[in-house]
Amino acid sequence: MRFMIIRKADPDTEAGVMPGQDLLAAMGRYNEALVDAGVWRGGEGLKPTNEAYRIQFSGGGEPTVIDGPFAETRELIAGYTMIETQTVEEALDWVKRWPREDGDVCLELRTVFGLEDFEPSAGLDVHTNLDARIARQSVSQAVHLSFTGNCREALEFYAELLGGKLLTVSTYGDAPEQAPVPDDWSDKIIHSELSLGQLVLMGVDAPPAYFEKPQGVSVQLSFDSVEKSRYAFDQLVEGGRVRMPFEATFWSAGFGMLTDRFGIHWMISTV
Fold first, then answer.
1. Checking CA distances to 145, which of 45, 72, 93, 229 falls within 20 to 30 Å?
2. Which CATH number fits domain 2-53+66-134: 3.40.50.300, 3.40.50.10840, 3.30.70.1060, 3.50.50.60?
3. Which residues does 246 contact at the CB level (< 8 Å), separation at least 6?
């Protein structure tokens, strides 16, 4: 059973008062306990309603947008936590464990509808088919790149140029078992992950017997200005080669294709 724990608003949350360090730490420990128990399904705090909008539909006409703030503080929501438990009693037990550092807080526990709560119908089939479609999707996506021994240099270059962050860097020397690599490859990369916003690049130094040059695949990046796109293109192509010059096209104000000095193909465009 899925539940939403609704944290009601109060004068402090509506005034935008940020939680103190004690409460922040306590909520972190509470969420960690939910995660460790396997019941956590998500949750966030909400900014006050002076940054909110209500969209009113009436009479079949155009919707009306109403700016916040809104007056009925105790009926407003300051945050929520999603959990999934076997019983209502278990859910209530978690709600009762809410951090006392939050003071005189009012919480509301609401049961979330499941598809099993509805009678079979054509309308329900739409949702069932959507759930089946989502179930087939992967939980994460990444582009995996192979290098000939310079993976670390390449990913550090990409991180600096593209504002990314290296999340994981593991070497062959870190592996619990000896991999079929040259003896002097202990500091080469067996697994790495570079976060570039919504895109993750994974990298490996492939042993000579296993390395294959990339063919028919490019990493595609879009920027919100021609200047940013051109800069990325010029930096990436240095020491590499141009496959299509960067210029205006009928589909983009600035587009180009290149192979960088590490042998990776890129497509750079402007949105």
1. 229
2. 3.30.70.1060
3. 229, 230, 233, 234, 254, 255, 256, 268
